[in-house]
User: What shape does this take?
Amino acid sequence: MSSFIGHTLNTLGIYVNKQSSPERMAWRWALLWLGWLGFVGLAPDLDYVIPQLYATRLSMETDLRITHSWVGTLFFPLLTMVVLTQLPLQRETKRALSVQVILVGLSHSILDLLVGVWPLPLLWPFSATRFKLPFGILPSAPAFRLDNPYMYRNVFMELGIFLPLYGGLYLWRHGARYKIGAVLLWLCAAICMGWAFTLAR
Assistant: This one.
């Protein structure tokens, strides 16, 4: 699984690069929305602290992590979209915010899949089949202890992947003169992905 740092960086990247709403939100509401996106991006990992969310309440190694299915990752995004329909916002704003929250929700399972460690029941409850890639291009979440050197290594990799990845996307969207910088940033992200690919799974 990706760490909470990786998921948070991914959420920030989606938020910054998907600002297509015609309405400018007041900073308090923008901060509240960003906080909610952060929660949505981390919500599938609630099963770490609420074991009742496992299908049969056994263990992460043997049980289905149902919060990591497409249904599980879309629960809060779909709930958010229902709430957005009741708010006095322009249709384009509702659409832009809905796209953001859907991307953040779905990206959790995608990032975990790209780690290539834990099999995920993506099609639950329609199928109990679990899916796992035979490789990984993201580092797994290490034990967060100050004396754990792997924690610093993996966090460094995540920073080296997500910051250049979304930074490059931001530059690419802001004109031709920034495209070389975007490509260089993506090259940095690709190097860190290659480094993560070499880790034992």
